[in-house]
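Thread amino acids onto this structure.
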């Protein structure tokens, strides 16, 4: 019997959903994002999934220029794989969302695989006051928000980035998104191995029940067989419970303050590195090993850190 593959830990450093009021530990400035990413890599993250923010207000910023101050520093300080979002914020157009990955040509870019309701308005109940005006509007607006990722949008991202040798973290928030990926695979527009990131617990997507996790894995196995690498992220309080289930099923995991600002029940994570350390302990506690960045590159058939545009 072959030894199980090593486990890839991805760290999603800041994202576009959580706002500055929710945690003082959320990286906002380029210095904070760089330091958080480097710390996560040192703790064991093989892949760093990156968003940018306005350094004054913390609002998501998907201009290519916003990524420049931290990309080079992260590359200099770590060997980690850099993954630039094309999800950006659900309030942005696909053209806006794709610009950073198109310019900087990372080894990996995220790609959302279907349109969906995208609700983070329940967080309003937890906060009476906000540091910045945009935060309340950002949360309230998601009551009437469809995160658009049409077939045309997905084709646009693929056509814009694939010529650069960038591969994708296919973010699948529901079963239909797996079938959408299979559609693009059947057309030859995406090539294996597929890096499938199953997202659990986002209001509008699949839930967090253990059967939901099993259903995602069974469906992906049936559609892609040995042609994919499976990873999971659990939103909020379910982050590590779902990670544990997935690792025990042969999966990879994503953690980070984009997905959850907590380290345990009622206790804010003080850093991304703290979550990565917990994830690493989880993996090693189950008798497995984490993948180095170069091992992750081999598993995902990536082009290498010397072939990026930063």
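Threaded sequence (310 positions):
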């Amino acid at each position: 019997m072959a030894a199980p593959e090593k486990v890839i830990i991805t760290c999603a450093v800041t994202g576009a959903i959580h706002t500055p009021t929710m945690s003082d530990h959320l990286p906002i400035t380029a210095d904070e994002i760089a330091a958080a990413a480097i710390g996560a890599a040192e703790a064991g993250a093989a892949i760093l999934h990156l968003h940018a923010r306005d350094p004054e207000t913390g609002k998501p910023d998907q201009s290519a220029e916003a990524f420049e101050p931290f990309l080079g520093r992260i590359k200099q300080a770590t060997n980690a794989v850099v993954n630039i979002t094309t999800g950006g914020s659900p309030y942005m157009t696909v053209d806006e969302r794709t610009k950073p990955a198109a310019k900087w040509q990372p080894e990996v870019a995220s790609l959302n695989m279907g349109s969906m309701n995208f609700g983070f308005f329940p967080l309003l109940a937890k906060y009476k006051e906000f540091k910045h005006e945009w935060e309340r509007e950002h949360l309230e607006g998601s009551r009437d928000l469809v995160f658009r990722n049409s077939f045309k949008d997905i084709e646009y991202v693929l056509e814009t980035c694939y010529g650069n040798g960038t591969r994708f973290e296919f973010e699948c928030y529901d079963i239909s998104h797996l079938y959408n990926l299979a559609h693009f695979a059947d057309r030859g527009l995406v090539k294996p191995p597929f890096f499938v990131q199953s997202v659990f617990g986002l209001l509008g997507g699949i839930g967090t029940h253990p059967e939901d996790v099993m259903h995602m894995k069974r469906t992906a196995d049936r559609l892609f067989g040995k042609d994919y690498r499976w990873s999971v992220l659990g939103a909020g309080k379910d982050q590590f419970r779902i990670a544990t289930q997935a690792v025990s099923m042969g999966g990879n995991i994503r953690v980070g303050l984009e997905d959850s600002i907590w380290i345990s029940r009622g206790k804010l994570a003080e850093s991304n590195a703290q979550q990565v350390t917990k994830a690493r302990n989880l993996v090693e506690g189950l008798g497995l090993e984490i993948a180095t960045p170069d091992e992750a590159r081999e598993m995902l058939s990536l082009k290498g850190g010397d072939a990026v545009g930063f």
